[in-house]
Backbone:
């Protein structure tokens, strides 16, 4: 696209080359393109016709193209990043769910095993062979809880209570 | 963007070497530019249309396909809330158990090696497994009801051809102990008896996951199943320690006296919370299919019995409340009375004859039928019947267990017209009620005359202790005055102190009454008896009611005082220790 807006700028040839012979023909056709020919003797460099200013619409379009190119690049990279993130989040969720599932299973197993053990122990206690008895009031001491006293303040901390005396030679036992 | 295909250097080189004949560039015609633009716009439009197509029209289908790829349905682990007792011990939990299927045609190892691996885990002999595995090439059900740990060990063997299908099962760790109360859930997951069926709506967890019985998987679970409802359990008022003691002592008593059945129940008279409700027969709800169908009903709730002498204390309370007698009055016990073709006697009329003038307390102490008839005849039969109806004798007690039986009385005209009916009702025969109703009515005396509702459910309690739901119960209704109930309690204390020595517990003031009722058989009263004892303690501040009933004890010396009272004493001794009820001497100390 840009190549169309930029026109070919012929470079001035160094003087005295063989190609100068080919020039008149080229220049002539260039002249035919650009309209008003400029008379240019071989030794003097011919002022090259400048390309006309591109129309404002074209300028806007080129700006839009640059912006949209940047935007497209950003969106593509964003799409790639979010796809990666979704896969990552999925996998983390997967792992967390697996862990939760495992913990739930373990909790269930523990609760059930605990209750089964309680029942088993109680049934063992019920058997005749043991000397265990059911609770009876004459085998038990009933205590009345003492009335709660006001909290006495703690004695101030004695610093250096456990500091041993310094000796030069250790005591051996 | 180079303005030429060739770089500057190439151009310069070219220029120096060979004269390049510059080809005239083709003039870009406007048409071509527009054509290219149009084509590009078309492509853009096509992409947009495709995007719209995919997102709006096929979006849901595609999302579903993606979801189905991720979502692997699991067995729902928890269908119901667990049931716990007063202390928080689990009485009923959901768990997942596995059925092991073997497909020998998929085995990579030889049959006997697989059998060897399995026999150590399943604890069955290798030869048994070999016969099982040799039966058919695929689809052999090796064993049911494998717990999770065993299933994990089998999975860790990593043998081909073994398949573990998960099922969800309701598990009762305490087996026989609470079966008539909690009931059971059958293998299809339907609740069949007890609290499981009566409170199924509250017990069921609100869930929206799919097919409940599918392959279990370690992979992703849907978020819906992960975000569970609040973990709560249905807490009962029963104390499993007391229940276990009660059940064991009851079983011993029933076996010792070769009785048909029995029950013992302990209730807090102020709140109506039942601390223990033991019945024989009972069954193992984990293996309900092995049980007798008759064991599924809780006979303490669903069956009626004629109470006999334990009802006498209630009748005295009625008479006192009505004002027809005073506590220090005396009535004449003549030994027998005639009502038309029927004669009523005391239980010991043959030995003792009539005892003459008795105080009301003595009427209770000697359990004199004639004395009771004399007392209740002081009020008109209609008033007596109104009182019985006020006691809601023919209505259910309102306990949360299902299938509660309503008591039966004679209808109004028969009761009022015939004189024998109020007479037999005076000593507790001629009408029937359920054991739990009897407990409720006896609690009237213990809590100052209020009719409380006996219940076993405390409520649905969350993990942190907050109550999420409680069943609604009617408010306690005052029927007797506190003075009347205290007067009757004093009489009942005398009965135990001077009479029923089998029920005495040293250090505790206990009031009670024995009951030995003849059972009706074929229109008349037969030889079978139903013995009972009701006790209320402590008298200085009544708190607990304990009722023990043994149905049809065999043997000569089978009375309430010899059969039911020792059972009451054993259960009550443990009750006072477990509830921390100090003996009277200690509690009187400052």
Residues:
């Amino acid at each position: 696209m840009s190549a169309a807006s930029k026109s070919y700028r012929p470079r001035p040839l160094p003087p005295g080359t063989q190609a100068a012979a080919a020039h008149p023909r080229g220049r002539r056709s260039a002249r035919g393109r650009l309209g008003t020919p400029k008379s240019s003797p071989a030794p003097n460099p011919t002022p090259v016709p400048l390309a006309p200013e591109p129309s404002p619409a074209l300028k806007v379009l080129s700006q839009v193209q640059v912006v949209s190119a940047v935007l497209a690049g950003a969106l593509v990279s964003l799409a790639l990043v979010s796809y990666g993130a979704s896969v990552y989040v999925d996998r983390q969720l997967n792992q967390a769910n697996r862990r939760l599932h495992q913990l739930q299973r373990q909790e269930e197993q523990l609760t059930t095993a605990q209750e089964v053990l309680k029942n088993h122990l109680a049934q063992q206690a019920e058997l005749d062979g043991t000397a265990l008895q059911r609770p009876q009031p004459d085998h038990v001491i009933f205590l009345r809880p003492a009335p709660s006293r006001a909290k006495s303040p703690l004695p101030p901390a004695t610093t250096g209570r456990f500091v041993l005396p310094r000796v030069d030679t250790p005591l051996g036992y | 963007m180079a303005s030429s295909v060739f770089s500057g250097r190439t151009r310069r080189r070219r220029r120096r070497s060979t004269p390049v004949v510059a080809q005239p560039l083709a003039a870009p015609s406007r048409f071509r530019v527009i054509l290219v633009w149009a084509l590009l716009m078309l492509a853009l439009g096509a992409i947009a249309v495709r995007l719209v197509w995919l997102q709006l029209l096929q979006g849901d289908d595609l999302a579903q396909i993606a979801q189905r790829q991720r979502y692997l349905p699991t067995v729902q682990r928890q269908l119901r809330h667990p049931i716990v007792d007063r202390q928080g011990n689990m009485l009923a939990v959901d768990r997942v158990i596995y059925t092991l299927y073997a497909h020998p045609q998929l085995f990579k190892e030889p049959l006997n090696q697989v059998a060897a691996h399995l026999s150590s885990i399943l604890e069955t002999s290798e030869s048994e497994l070999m016969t099982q595995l040799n039966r058919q090439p695929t689809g052999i059900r090796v064993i049911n009801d494998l717990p999770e740990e065993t299933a994990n060990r089998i999975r860790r063997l990593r043998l081909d051809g073994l398949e573990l299908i998960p099922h969800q099962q309701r598990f009762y760790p305490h087996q026989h102990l609470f079966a008539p109360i909690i009931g059971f859930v059958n293998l299809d997951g339907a609740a069949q008896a007890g609290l499981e069926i009566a409170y199924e709506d509250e017990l069921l967890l609100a869930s929206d996951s799919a097919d409940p019985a599918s392959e279990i998987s370690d992979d992703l679970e849907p978020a819906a199943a992960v975000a569970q409802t609040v973990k709560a359990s249905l807490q009962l008022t029963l104390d499993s320690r007391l229940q276990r003691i009660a059940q064991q002592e009851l079983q011993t008593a029933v076996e010792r006296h070769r009785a048909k059945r029995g029950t013992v129940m302990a209730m807090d008279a102020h709140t109506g919370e039942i601390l223990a409700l033991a019945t024989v027969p009972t069954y193992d709800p984990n293996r309900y299919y092995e049980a007798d169908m008759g064991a599924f009903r809780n006979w303490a709730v669903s069956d009626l019995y004629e109470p006999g002498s334990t009802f006498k204390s209630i009748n005295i309370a009625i008479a006192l409340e009505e004002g027809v007698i005073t506590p220090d009055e005396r009535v004449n016990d003549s030994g027998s009375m005639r009502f038309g073709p029927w004669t009523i006697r005391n239980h010991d009329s043959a030995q003792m004859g009539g005892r003459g003038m008795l105080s009301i307390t003595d009427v209770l102490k000697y359990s004199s039928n004639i004395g009771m008839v004399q007392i209740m005849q002081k009020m008109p039969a209609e008033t007596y019947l109104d009182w019985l109806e006020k006691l809601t004798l023919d209505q259910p007690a309102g306990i949360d267990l299902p299938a509660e039986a309503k008591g039966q009385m004679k209808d109004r005209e028969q009761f009022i017209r015939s004189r024998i009916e109020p007479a037999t009702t005076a000593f507790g025969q001629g009408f029937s009620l359920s054991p739990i109703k009897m407990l409720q009515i006896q609690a009237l005396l213990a809590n100052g005359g209020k009719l409380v509702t006996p219940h076993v459910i405390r409520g649905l309690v969350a993990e942190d202790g907050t109550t999420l739901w409680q069943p609604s119960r009617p408010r306690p209704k005052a029927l007797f005055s506190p003075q009347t109930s205290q007067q009757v309690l004093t009489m009942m204390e005398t009965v135990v102190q001077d009479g029923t020595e089998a029920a005495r517990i040293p250090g505790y003031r206990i009031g009670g009454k024995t009951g030995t009722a003849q059972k009706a058989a074929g229109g008349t009263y037969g030889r079978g008896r139903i013995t009972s004892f009701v006790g209320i303690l402590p008298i200085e501040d009544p708190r607990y009611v304990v009722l023990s009933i043994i149905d049809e004890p065999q043997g000569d010396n089978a009375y309430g005082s010899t059969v039911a009272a020792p059972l009451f004493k054993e259960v009550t001794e443990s009750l006072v220790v477990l509830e921390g009820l100090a003996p009277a001497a200690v509690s009187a100390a400052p």
Q: What stands out?
A: Chain B touches chain A through 55 residues (CB under 8 Å).
